[in-house]
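Researcher: Please generate the 3D structure of the following complex. Treat every line as part of one assembly.
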Amino acid sequence: MSKIVSVTGNHSASWAARTAIPAVIAAYPITPQTTIVEKIAEFVENGDLKSEYVRVESEHSAMAACIGASALGLRTFTATSSHGLALMHEMLHWAGRARLPVVMPVVNRSLGPPWNIWVDHTDTMSQRDTGWIQFYASNNQEVYDTVLMLFRLCEDPKVLLPGMVALDAYILSHTFTSIEVYDYEEIIDFLPTYEAGHWKLNPKDPMAIGNIAGPEYYYELSYAVHEGFEAARKMIPKVEADFKKHFGRAHGGFIDTYQCDDAEVIFIALGTMGEEAQLAVEELRNEGIRAGSARIRVFRPFPAEQIQTLAQKAKAFVVVDRSLSYGHLGGVVTEIRSALYRSGQTIPVQGVIAGLGGRDVRHTDIKKLIQLGFDVADKGEAMPDIFYGLKR
Amino acid sequence: MVAIKELPRDEYIELGHAACAGCGATIAIRHALKALGGNTILTVPACCMSVIQGLFPKNALHLPVLNTAFETAGAAASGIAAGLKFMGKDKDINVMAWAGDGGTYDIGIQALSGAAERKTNFIYTCYNNESYGNTGQQRSGATPYGAFSTTTPIIGKQEHRKPMARIMAEHGIPYTASISAAYPRLVFETYSKAKDIVGTRFIEIHAMCPTGWRCATWDSVKFGKLAVETGVWIMWEKEGEEWRFLGRSKQIAEGKVQRKPVMDYLKPQGRFRTLIKDSKKVKEFERGIEREWDILKQKVSC
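Model: Done. Output below.
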């Protein structure tokens, strides 16, 4: 029977693995991810979870092991963060291009030097071109639910892509809240056993994955990955609707909007900052200020159309990136401007960099940034991108 | 020793593969797979075999193959082995990683060592052609002392190779072997034995490479044999706790045949052209060989 457990964001991910019963789980420690795989080890050793648990010797090997297991046509899972994700980079491409639906929570943490273990989105932003579906969660229940949704989505024969759900270090990873969890029997209608079809290593029907393909094939194989993402774009609303039908919850589809219908300024961010913004919006609304919040939940496939729709009514966007592409801007604002340029929409989009390396961004800060958005809306033009809270 | 006419007729590497003429690795995989049979899953990291198997959408290997990144053979095989265990098929299906010396001695040693330490149930083959053959003969940890490579182009390699098979044997794995592709019947027998052992099995095959060794393609097997006959390459196995010399190396160790002069092996190969001009360097080359014999003789007599 479903039950309520009081868990951290990390343990929400562990519970999701326990519910989905992956055949193979690869485990390697890294702060602040470690407690995900520790909890799973407990589930496996006390007999609650019948997965093969492989204690690999690096994150690179974790992903390689997941690729090996997934290539057999089996459900696979691992988890990582920061430098671990960076080390995996090569194998992220390998999983994406080999069309292997590995599912992986990533605890968003900064990259060194200096060593810093706090929240920052640089790790996952650096992986956006690897062929992985990317979700960003904003609370513990969403972490749990998104892992289950990702298995369903990624294992769909039209999609067949790996997927990651990102959760903010400490703000989610080590913070307890109550969530509802299930046994596998309760979710089997939503998430049936993974059947890989013909695309697997099978001595009875041998085939090679990944041998050399020249220029006459490579482009088409790349396009096939892109088609997988377009299929995922169509599937995501269906998967979430079906999840809601079964479990009574949804988390906003591609973009979790709050008070956006009549908002003049919309604040856009990923992860917990997107949820924190709802509090800021609520307070501003109490003051009669027409603010809205749009938390981007799915970053790949990127919800360009949804962004264009939001821009139809609003007068300005304020977009906060918790990462920085040195020498340019944040990744999120770049994508948003690109989407609007394509549709010929010219509302000002104010770019903001904030919260790097765990620097706190409170709802009071978000209120200030939204108010800045009203100035921008009045001028009809964005200021140069802002490094908010930077000490000089 | 199995007679050639008794070897299984089944072929798992088909005609039309893309190996160079005289390739030792291809002789090796042909006979290894005859022993393992069709119920085998291969994983191949970047190496000559990535090319030898042929171009998409065709493949000369008549087995399921997971091509994987350079440093990951041990890890990818770990995932396959774990998956088969989950499916309850780990006893029926062989898992074999087939990697070159660069992918084993150098970039892949971490994943291999980890897999061995975890007692992963698979066979790891290192076919050792003594350089990064696929990228055009760069120096690897397996390149012999003094040998030319494209990254030691003028003075030759200044260091001895790693004792890779001994390093693996010291992991305490149930089976380790060091053999040569010049003896295909021994290749077959080694894999026939390894097939029935559970746990990590490491087999290193000295694999002739006329392209890299700068010798005639038709002399490939001759040079493979000369490496053993001169004692430069030593064939041995460790089964459980027991170390044994194999084949010609056994005869040499027991004093039944004399080792041929090392120069017989070095002189005709273009890659040793600089080495053989310097008698001090030849002595250093020989010192490295003697050291390995001394260590292995101690292991065998223990």
